[in-house]
Design brief:
Helix 1 (31-42) packs across helix 9, helix 7 (165-178) packs antiparallel against helix 9 (190-206) and helix 7 packs parallel to helix 10 (211-227). The chain is built from 12 helices and no strands. It has one domain. It is mostly helical. The chain is 55% helix and 0% strand.
Length: 274
Amino acid sequence: MTDVPYLLRGVVPVATDSSVLVSSSKYLNHPRLREWVAMILLRKNGPDFPAQAEMHEIIGIMDELRDHDRIEWLFTEERKTNRQLDDWFKEGHISNYKLDDFKDYAPDTVGGKYYRYLFDGGFEAQIVPWRKPETQLQFYNLRSGQTHDFEHILCGGGFNYMGELIPYWYRLTNVFKFINNKELAGELSVMQVLGSLRYTIRTMLHYPEVWETAVACIQRGMKVGQQSDALFLQKIEPVFGMKMDEARKTLGVRGVVDVDTSREGNIWSGKLAA
């Protein structure tokens, strides 16, 4: 035992007849996910492959990996005791707004801020491809995509790469607060935890100038998630015409600190030198 390095003690070699990599982890067993994780953790940013393209890839990978029947069962069981979640599914609200729907909102309202973001960036509203949800998970994912930009606005995360950490970490804390079954909460949070890793590992490896900003954004997102009501289970449309303080109070969003991280976000993306 004394000849075994301290950090290697307890390692038990496992024999196998397999000719390929095999693990007890379905995530480690998936070749595309291994490649994706290595890429998003280790690469530097460049205009040839923007960060949003990384998320397009992981959506397909996770669709292959998920046990969809198990998740549906978990949702059904959760709804038996989670009244708010059950009511949300029963109502089945799906947004259908378009860019022009926001053009007449005052600049200091939720709708006005969203319009400015879409118009200035040349984006379209409802960037998530729409299809009628056929499962509870599909509905959850559709609504998550439809409300993500408003989670930026309401939780204090600017529309830049450092600002992305705030809605990520709002979700990573808030979902666990309002979903009682932790297995289900975990299934619903895999995308967020993988997506957020880009902004932690890559920042430390390649953009340490903005590391402290990244840490502050994580802390701010966690604080909002821990203190707020279940924003992810609410309609957003009723607050479009409200100013920020009123909208946050109406939706039960608490602990927000609005900080401009656009400069740090541009450093992280490679658009601006430190």
